[in-house]
Amino acid sequence: MTEPTLPRIRPEIAALPPYRQGKQAGPDAFKLSSNENPFEPLPSVLEALQTTTPINRYPDASAAALRARLGEKYGVEPDAVHVAAGSVSILHQLVLGTASVGDEVVYAWRSFEAYPSLPLVAGATGVQVPLTSGARHDLDAMADAVTDRTRVVIVCTPNNPTGPVVSSAEFAAFVARVPQDVLIILDEAYAEFVTAPDAVDGLGERVFERHPNVVVLRTFSKAYGLAGLRVGYAIGHPRVLDAARTTGIPLSVTSAAERAAIASLDAEAELRERISVIVERRTRLIGGLRAQGWQVPDSQANFVWLPAGERTDEVAAAFDAADLIVRPFSGDGIRISVGEEESIDRVLAVAKSLL
Ligand code: PMP
Questions:
Q1: N6-(pyridoxal phosphate)lysine (modified residue): where (predicted)?
Q2: Is 167 helix (H, G, I), strand (E, B) or coil?
Q3: I want to staple 294 with a disulfide (CB 3.0 to 4.6 A). Which of 117, 230, 289, 350 is the partner?
């Protein structure tokens, strides 16, 4: 059969690999590849899902109830809050709203896998700044990489997939060096798991108020355990967020997602408890790996980084054979989510056998 003539696709889009998702786990496997929350949904969240607005009706386009609730939590006007179907949507919306052909988007590398596609989709150019040897953001080098073509800089803290945070002092010095007309996205998808007292906390420190070019991103996918419902939010200057509202696909946050997010915010105490369990497991996992001799960076998120380098594929195969679905980055390392209690023992046993 002859190939049909197809519509022309932009070559930079055709060359992009699709978003890579962790493998699905079988019944005896632990899925530790997507930094998900291992806990069952809270009863109050399930209840909220059952009382969702009839599904023959569209959701509220601006998710006003959730924005009001988040506004209350953080002491900002609802217009200073934007919600979308996952914080990855907001990353796209903000980059589309600010960067275009000839513009540059600066981000650290290695970092969140979705970053490279953001400038490409917008027609802009990505500029990757290597992490330090300690797997941390090199904010001095990132500020040096800003040119008069830079429209956006993304700072991921804790950094996915390596785990370290940017400190408040480092971030303050960085913001002071970046021109005020350049958008700084502070991606804090894992903020709720942070325990380091000197870590930047964009919302707690209200960085976005002193610096209207800073937008803070958070998500309900990780600590709140709503990854399957898709809801994330941004807090920042209302006129900056308007750019995201305009470029976003309308009505993408479902009524179910909005209700579940509000119910989760209402269950703060139970969520805090779950977070502290995950943080304890993280401490045990990092301590165990280091005791075996692995050079694990200090993760402040719900995952740890195993810098396996050239051995990454071999190490990943060993985890796979033990029914541990982890996330390998060939030639570099392996990211392992902090999951179920028993998964920690299994990870430690496999890691030990590899040394
Ligand atoms: N930012 C970072 C750093 C992430 O790791 C992720 C999820 N892997 C996201 C944003 C997006 O999360 P979501 O779209 O589920 O809110």
A1: 222
A2: strand
A3: 289
Mutate which of 219, 229, 304, 338 for ligand 1? The one with the most ligand atoms within 8 Å of its CB, which is: 219
Predicted complex: ipTM over 0.90 = yes
Give the integer Cα–Cα distance in Å for 188 and 201: 8
Structural domains of the chain, with CATH: 20-41+269-353 (3.90.1150.10), 43-266 (3.40.640.10)
Give the atom of ligand 1 at the shortest distance from the alpha carbon of 220.
Answer: 16
For ligand 1, is residue 159 a contact (CB within 6 Å)?
Answer: no
Q: Assess whether the C-beta atom of 227 lies below 6 angstroms from ligand 1.
A: yes
pLDDT for 52 equals 67
How would you class 331 by CB atoms within 10 Å of its CB: exposed for 0-12, middle for 13-18, buried for 19 or more? exposed
- Report how far apart, in Å, the C-alpha atoms of 273 and of each of 192, 193, 225, 267, 342 are: 11, 11, 13, 10, 18
Neighbours of 242 (CB within 10 A): 13
Q: Is the dihedral of CA 102, 105, 106, 111 positive or negative?
A: negative
Q: 10-residue block means of pLDDT along the chain (355 residues)?
A: 89 83 78 95 92 86 97 98 98 98 98 97 97 97 98 98 98 98 98 98 98 98 97 98 96 96 96 97 98 97 97 96 96 97 97 93
Q: What is the pLDDT of residue 166?
A: 98
d(CA 309, CA 294): 12
**With 0-12 CB in 10 A as exposed, 13-18 as middle and 19+ as buried, what is 238?**
middle
pLDDT in the model for residue 304: 98
